[in-house]
Amino acid sequence: MAKFSKIYDEYANKVYHYLLALTRDEQIAEELTQDTFYKAMLHIHQFKEQCSMFTWLCQIGKNTYISWYRKQKFVDQEAELQEMEFEQDFVKDMVSKEQSMKVHKVLHSLEEPYKEVFNLRVFGELKFKEIGEIFDKSEVWAKVTYYRAKAKIMERMEEWE
Questions:
Q1: Which run of H or of E encompasses 158?
Q2: Where are the alpha helices (DSSP H) in 24-138?
């Protein structure tokens, strides 16, 4: 594990910049970098030194990006537009003091783990992987819980109006 930690320290920034060049999005590049190193850690025993470590990591990163990209192509565009509208409206509502108070009341009324996951993501600015680690769950669990929390908040905000 210590050996892999050295590999991470040496190559993480380079792999991140490689993925940033592919994605042109810092957040996606960060998440893909994390996924890349997670996969590399799981399969480090398969590294045969037929290429450099950096090349091997970039290949894993590229495959991770391709998998992510394919999944994105199948996302329902209407749901994506609704999500974007919700995000924009949510930010506007957060700016308003009156709405801010309502949001905090709704947040306070949310049951766990939705409340804590939402707070960690929005106010703590943690990555989904980090949130999953806090709860001893997966990154996917953190994403699903966060999006369910947002849906609950939106639903309860509509009830208040």
A1: helix 139-160
A2: 26-42, 53-73, 77-95, 97-109, 114-122, 128-134
Whether 155 shows a pLDDT value over 80: the answer reads yes
Q: Are 142 and 128 in contact (CB under 8 A)?
A: yes
**CA gap 7, 3 in Å, rounded:** 6
φ/ψ of 111, rounded to 5, equals -80, 160
Residue 69 CA to residue 53 CA, distance in Å, equals: 24
Angle CA 143–30–65, to nearest 5: 85
Distance CA 116, CA 110 (A): 9
pLDDT (average), residues 8-25: 87
**pLDDT of 3:** 81
Q: Whole-angstrom Cα distance, residue 103 to residue 71?
A: 32
Residue bearing the bigger pLDDT, 35 or 120? 35
